[in-house]
UniProtKB/TrEMBL annotation:
Organism expressing this protein natively: Candidatus Staskawiczbacteria bacterium RIFCSPHIGHO2_12_FULL_38_11
Location relative to the cell: Membrane
Gene Ontology BP terms: polysaccharide biosynthetic process
Keywords, in A-Z order: Membrane, Transmembrane, Transmembrane helix
Name listed for the protein in its UniProt record: GtrA/DPMS transmembrane domain-containing protein
Domain of life according to the entry: Bacteria
Domain named GtrA/DPMS transmembrane: residues: 69-197
Length: 199
């Protein structure tokens, strides 16, 4: 593993820890200073350990290591997506479906710019500059289909399915963003690996 792998895994784990702490607070669980520090210290180490394990397995099956890095890039991008969505939703403060879907679309597109850079330069290690226009067009074509999948899944989970397990609306909306991102992520990984960043 390279030092960039270690650094990015630790940063991704820290960002995921931030989201976990945020969820616990919204569920009314007071994590306190001790548990907060534990989450912030343990999740980066777990992230690094999982990436190291994927690296070892990836020596025989490269897609495992690529998939682990793709997952970390996607996790950070999903948190960017979620926090930006919450910010836009807070700015508009209107619970109209069109505004909600527009805010979700904007947050998805901006987080996609981060995904492009992270996947190109870190997950799939494609640093070549030839055919960059074709690569960018392919990336955004795959991503636009991913956007449609993401928004449709978000709408299904948040509006049609609605809150489950007696969870508050605010938590269910966050979970809907994450569930939608996971479904779109499967499509995107296959598209990026085999069509956009293939070597």
């Amino acid at each position: 593993m390279k030092i960039t792998d270690v650094i990015f895994a630790l940063i991704a784990g820290r960002i995921i820890g931030f989201l976990v702490g945020d969820f616990l607070r919204e569920w009314g669980i007071d994590i306190g200073l001790y548990w907060g520090l534990l989450i912030w210290l343990v999740l980066p180490l777990v992230s690094l350990a999982c990436l190291w394990l994927a690296y070892k397995i990836g020596r025989k099956f490269l897609f495992i290591f690529q998939g682990a890095k793709y997952f970390l890039v996607g996790a950070v991008a999903t948190i960017i997506d979620l926090k930006l969505f919450e910010f836009l939703f807070w700015i508009f403060s209107i619970h109209i479906t069109f505004v909600t879907i527009t805010a979700k679309s904007i947050s998805f597109i901006i987080s996609t710019f981060f995904k492009y850079w992270g996947n190109k330069h870190w997950a799939f290690l494609k640093h070549e500059k030839e055919d960059i226009h074709k690569e960018i067009i392919g990336f955004f074509a795959i991503t636009l289909v991913g956007l449609a999948i993401d928004v449709m899944c978000f709408y299904y989970f948040a509006k049609i399915m609605g809150p489950q397990f007696n969870l508050p609306d605010a938590i269910w909306v966050k979970l809907s963003v994450i569930f939608a991102a996971l479904v779109a992520a499967l499509w995107n990984f296959v598209g990026y690996k085999f069509f956009v960043f293939k070597k």
